[in-house]
Specification:
heterodimer; A: MetI-like fold; B: alpha/beta; six-stranded mixed sheet; four-stranded antiparallel sheet; 10 strands
Chain lengths: 251, 254
């Protein structure tokens, strides 16, 4: 049953390798699977630019994401809970959100560089923008989805506002918050790579790495780098999913 | 603890003018300590509203609720409520649901666990203390909900059609279970239902409300000893009386 899951994929890779070996695909445009694997090894032991090894690029990228994403979650979850709970606050803040949210995070790059300079702060800011809104909107939706009867049940147990917040609204919104966090990390990770095309000072980062590979015309390393980006994005999602199913076993 | 309603009225004001709904109309009543009182009436008549006012979830438009002669404060510690749809916190296990009130009260973890386990045992929930509500049957859910309310030791227990969504077998079992608990504790119970059989089987007195706006139209003493036989002639007689009053009320113009 599990075998046919990968059948088509393997078939396509074989055809691709076959066409490359027969020189039907020019390798300066699309490296073959074997070349990509060799490029991956190069990334690990030689580095692009030389000496800047793959795991350093990964760590820098993860650090930027962790910073931007962490700040986004830290701000968006409490704000979302408050906006979900207080209709007045929701009415006041929503127009602002609706105006800012449709601006693609990448469109902020010029102003981010102006505000924070080139470096970790501007990259983290772009990721923050990508992750903030999905988390905020899903947290609000989470609070609104809570059965009002549960709030009343808590009140008849003499819950104060603080108890309602921590013992009803927060746990009740967790499933929805997780949806937001997963969308948020997805957007954040995508945004990161693009942010690193321009806003990198340290000479590290996966986006920076594949742009450098393009500059020195190494399509094998570009593609290997792209795959690394994809796999890490997948691993993050798998990790979040595992945390999610552990935290909301009650569903 | 006696509970008195003095000229209690409630009008819900709608969004627009002329949309207000007059729900309770000059309710006057006195519930003596330790009585099992059932409130019965046509659906949508305002039975639930009356409970919600006592529970402090709603404010009366006029009139007062007195507790031992003193005007009741909103959300009094003396009052507990059980809801029809259980209203269990789905993210909390049986034990955690039962503990919720003690947690809010700031009781230490060990102490509240000890008390809650006592309730788990007495409410026939042993083995299910770490299950989530979705894993429990309807009867079990309602036992958790009752335990969660009673652990706070309220003197007045409000129950809003608590067995309304149970099948009839479970419902009968729950009624007997409730009587057993009540006879042990001696709290005052105000029980809302639209099921006449249930009212006759359970109560010391039955209060019949009119259609909206609800007035008290009849008070019936049920002076039958317990345990009662649901199918006995005495039970049937009271049942007939109540049904007749309700039927006449439904036929009334207006």
């Amino acid at each position: 049953m599990k075998k046919d899951r990968y059948l088509l994929l393997l078939l396509l890779i074989s055809i691709w390798q076959g066409l490359s070996s027969l020189h039907l695909i020019p390798s300066y445009k699309l490296a073959s699977p074997v070349e990509i694997i060799l490029g991956f090894i190069d990334l690990m032991i030689v580095g692009v630019p030389p000496g800047h090894l793959l795991h350093h690029h990964v760590l820098y990228s993860l650090y930027r994401v962790a910073l931007g994403y962490g700040v986004a979650a830290l701000l968006a979850i409490p704000l979302g809970l408050l906006m979900g709970w207080f209709p007045k606050l929701r009415r006041m803040v929503s127009p602002l959100v609706e105006v800012v949210r449709p601006i693609p995070p990448l469109a902020w790059i010029p102003i981010a560089i102006l505000w924070f300079g080139i470096g970790i702060k501007s990259a983290a800011f772009i990721i923050f923008l990508g992750a903030f809104f999905p988390i905020l909107l899903n947290t609000i939706a989470g609070v609104l989805s809570i059965n009002p009867l549960l709030v009343e049940a808590a009140r008849t147990l003499h819950a104060k506002e603080k108890d309602i917040f921590y013992k009803v609204l927060l746990p009740g919104s967790v499933p929805s918050i997780f949806v937001g966090m997963r969308i948020g990390i997805g957007v954040g990770w995508m945004t990161l790579v693009a942010a690193e095309f321009t806003g990198v000072k340290e000479g590290f980062g996966l986006g920076y790495m594949i742009m450098t590979a393009r500059d020195i015309q190494r399509p094998d390393e570009i593609l290997a780098g792209m795959l690394v980006i994809g796999v890490i994005g997948l691993l993050i999602d798998v990790g979040l999913r595992a945390t999610e199913s552990r935290m909301i076993r009650w569903r | 603890m006696t509970l008195e309603f003095l000229d209690l009225s409630k009008t819900f004001s709608g969004e627009m003018e002329g949309e207000s709904v007059h729900t309770l109309d000059h309710i006057e009543y006195r519930v003596e300590n330790g009585r099992f009182v059932t409130i019965i009436g046509p659906s949508g008549c305002g039975k639930t509203t009356l409970l919600r006012i006592i529970a402090g979830l709603e404010k009366a438009s006029a009139g007062k609720v007195l507790l031992d002669g003193k005007e009741m404060v909103q959300g009094s510690e003396e009052v507990g409520m059980v809801f029809q749809e259980y209203a269990l916190f789905p993210w909390r296990t049986t034990l955690q649901n039962i503990e919720m009130g003690l947690e809010i009260r700031g009781i230490s973890r060990e102490k509240r666990r000890l008390t809650a386990m006592e309730y788990v045992k007495n409410f026939d929930l042993a083995g299910f203390e770490n299950r989530y509500p979705r894993e429990l049957s309807g009867g079990m859910k309602q036992r958790v909900a009752i335990a969660r309310t009673l652990i706070m030791n309220p003197r007045i227990v409000l129950m809003d059609e608590p067995f309304g969504s149970l099948d009839s077998q479970t419902r009968n079992a729950m009624q007997e279970f409730l009587l057993k608990i009540w006879q042990k504790r001696g709290d005052t119970i105000i029980f809302v239902t639209h099921n006449v059989d249930e009212a006759v089987f359970l109560s010391d007195e039955i209060v019949v409300l009119s259609r909206r706006p609800a007035r008290m139209i009849k008070r019936i003493e049920v002076e039958l000893s317990r345990p009662r036989d649901r199918t006995s002639e005495e039970c049937n007689k009271i049942r007939r009386d109540v049904l007749k009053i309700l039927e006449e009320e439904m036929k009334r113009e207006g």
